[in-house]
Amino acid sequence: MSNTINVLEENTRSRTGKHRRRVLFYVLKGKCEELKYSVVRKERIKGLYAVGDAFKETIKIPEDAVVVVLDVRLNNRGHVKGEVKVIDSKGVILGEAVYRKLKVRFKYLAGKDVVDFVKCVFRKLRLPVKKYAIITNRGA
After folding, report:
1. Measured on CA atoms in the order 55, 25, 122, 70, is the torsion positive or negative?
2. Model confidence over 29-48: pLDDT tens digits?
3. Mean pLDDT throughout 5-12?
4. Which of 62, 72, 80, 138 sits at 20 to 30 Å (Cα–Cα) from 105?
5. CB of 65 within 8 A of CB of 73?
6. From CA 68, how far away is CA 94, in angstroms rounded?
7. What confidence tier does 138 reach under pLDDT thresholds 50, 70, 90?
8. Which residues face 96 on adjacent strands?
9. Can you list the alpha helix ranges (DSSP code H) found in the chain?
10. pLDDT digits 0-9 by tens, 84-98
């Protein structure tokens, strides 16, 4: 059985090129295994910046899969900031984190395996991380 989830995919930049935003997602299972997904509906939306594309997608994923959504922004000083969300196949948020100053800080965490999914995505993208930390945990 498979479920559908709404996700955002964006790759935009400002007219001057000093600011950028990239939103991407990975469908994962188990030990960092990337899964195939099918796109049910893809709709063009207005992005944060003027140049580039932004889409709102409805994807169909397997029952035991997890979607890791990464929203990263680059400012004019070259600093990268972002948010990470981990969502299960039913649409329930398993974890939320922020990425600032080369640190990933979890605001919410449903289980310890969520950290492994986030580490996996940062390894795949080769984004540098000095430290992973849990700052608050409203679920447990």
Report:
1. positive
2. 988 899 999 999 999 999 99
3. 96
4. 62
5. no
6. 10
7. low
8. 85, 108
9. 113-125
10. 999 999 999 999 999
**Nearest-angstrom CA–CA distance, 38 and 95:** 24
Residue 20 — very low, low, confident or very high, per pLDDT cuts 50/70/90? very high
Bridge partners of 10, per DSSP, are 23, 54
Rounded Cα gap, residues 138 and 38, in angstroms: 33
| C-alpha to C-alpha distance for 140 and 132, rounded to whole angstroms | 18
Cβ pair 68, 61 in contact under 8 A:
no
From CA 17, how far away is CA 43, in angstroms rounded? 25
CA 22 to chain centre: 10
Q: Is 138 helix (H, G, I), strand (E, B) or coil?
A: coil
Whole-number Å distance between alpha carbons of 64 and 62: 6
Task: Give the DSSP letter string of 61-90.
Answer: EETT-EEEEEEEEE-TTS-EEEEEEEEETT
pTM tops 0.85: yes
Give the amino acid at 130: K
